[in-house]
Amino acid sequence: GDHWGYGIEDGPSVWHKTYPIAQGNRQSPIDIVPHQASCDPSLGPIVLNYDHCTSMNIANNGHSVIVEFDDTDDRVVIQGGPLDNPYKLKQFHFHWGGKGCHGSEHTVAGNSYASELHLVHWNAVKYGTFEEAATAPDGLAVLGIFLETGDDHRWLNMITDALYMVKFKGSVTDFEGFNPMCLLPSSLDYWTYLGSLTTPPLYESVVWIILREPIMVSEKQLSKFRMLLLTEEEEDQRIHMENNFRPPQPLNGRKVRSSI
Length: 260
Ligand SMILES: CCCCCNS(=O)(=O)c1cc(S(N)(=O)=O)ccc1C(=O)O
Ligand SMILES: [Zn+2]
Description:
The protein has helices spanning 15-18, 130-133, 157-160, 219-225; strands at residues 31-32, 38-39, 46-49, 55-60, 65-69, 77-80, 87-96, 107-108, 115-122, 140-149, 172-174, 190-195, 206-211, 215-217, 257-258. Helix content is 7%, strand content 28%.
């Protein structure tokens, strides 16, 4: 089972002991410095076809809360932008902080947001399975959206109202018909760079597409994420899930391109 976490003993600073790729040259997240990003006119807009969205369930895997999709349906894709193929939506999940402190993984000119949503897609044109794509350099495309505290997000309530049903690690419950289009900001302007998964196994298989515009969520909605537990139902100890973010990693000369 997973023996990694975000604590002192098992957190990002010791992941390299079990996952040496943690010290690789295309690790994520990174600090995005907007004025150092190269504006690339050949970068077209990203196109999201989430019309026939088929969410299946919502789960607590002890690291985050994940909404999984039926990826046998090849209509729910992201394409365009830096992508040569359409990539199929597999799951989305969040990273967040503790009370009042920051929780995003990517930062922008050193500033972090309260939380970050990741929509994970895989290149089903080139690879036969998600697992195979997850180890290929162009196998995954993760769309990152920053969450900033402010007004209530009217659609995020559908997710935060379901969190009590997956309070414990290992719990999963039906969560059908949720369309993540409702979680997008108004602008699809983005930064893009080649990186990795931000959790073990940290495979260097991700084309990152980070939207510049954050969505607004309320402190009350964020506090519901912190109600999730790292511990299983039968355990006596109850440890809350918070600060499940990896800090920015060395850019190692990588280029960050911007669509703007
Ligand atoms: C075959 C091994 C795949 C491991 C990666 N799975 S994933 O869904 O892409 C993923 C991505 C990410 S991230 N933050 O998008 O890199 C975090 C967790 C997971 C997960 O496994 O739940
Ligand atoms: Zn993530």
